[in-house]
Amino acid sequence: MRTDLDIRRPALTDAAAFADWIADWQGDPYYDWIFARAWTDFDWYVATCDRVRTDGFPPELTVPLDAQWAFANQTLVAELYLFYEPLVGDNHIGYKVRPSYRRQGIATALLHHGLNQLLERGIAIARLTCRDTNLASAAVIERAGGTRLKDKRGTHGQLNRRCTIPMDRDRTMTPVPGPKMAT
Predict the structure, then answer these.
(1) Percentage of the chain lying above the pLDDT 70 cut
(2) Which CA distances in Å does 74 have to 16, 77, 82, 123?
(3) What is the pLDDT of residue 182?
(4) N or C: which end of the chain has fewer CB within 10 A?
(5) Which residues does residue 63 pair with via DSSP β-bridges, in sequence order?
């Protein structure tokens, strides 16, 4: 597993790395949502990431969300989202790897980092979802001990695989080096 990633929360000093990252995602519907404003108001985006960690997201659900970014050699290569209370009961961890950095072990490293964060908070079973068509992410989840549950339709009609990963204090996971995340 990769150990060269710096995983940390977004900061105002990351504006150039974010601009470089977002250029790879033009046209992706996910980035036409909250990130559409981030393109023109990065300060707002970083402040929003700080706010939702304590106040929750989306506002009607108030689920705490901890956004973290993974850097390799100062390049933003992936995002990690941790829901310490699963969003609509289905998800503790979400991640997205930059297309040009896929198949390099980054998703595996992010998942292990996220599982360690959940374990530190005493979460007994991690819940994850991925689109049924995302076989690479499904394989990452399965390799981490994921067990597939009944699939479920997402808010946009897509079929999502639902999985659980039991958390165990004896679980051997290689932590990703980098600064310890504040709780």
Answers:
(1) 77
(2) 10, 9, 22, 31
(3) 35
(4) C
(5) 57
Lowest-confidence range among 6-15, 66-75, 78-87? 78-87
Q: How far apart are CA 78 and CA 106, in angstroms?
A: 8
Residue 27 has which token pair? 């046209």
| C-alpha span between 113 and 57 (Å, rounded) | 21
Tell me, yes or no, whether 167 lies in a domain: no
Domain that holds residue 108: 6-124
Q: Are 78 and 70 contacting, i.e. CB atoms less than 8 angstroms apart?
A: yes
Q: What span, in angstroms and rounded, lies between the C-alpha atoms of 120 and 182?
A: 11
155 domain residue, yes or no = no
CA distance 78 to 110: 8
For residue 66, the model assigns a pLDDT of: 85
The helix, strand and coil proportions of the chain, stated in percent and rounded to the nearest 5, come to 35, 30, 35
Kindly indicate the confidence band of residue 123, based on its pLDDT and cuts at 50, 70 and 90. Answer: confident
Asked, for residue 77, whether it belongs to a domain, the answer is yes
Query: Looking at residue 88, which CATH number applies to its domain?
Result: 3.40.630.30
In a domain, 169, yes or no: no
How many domains is the chain built from? Answer: 1
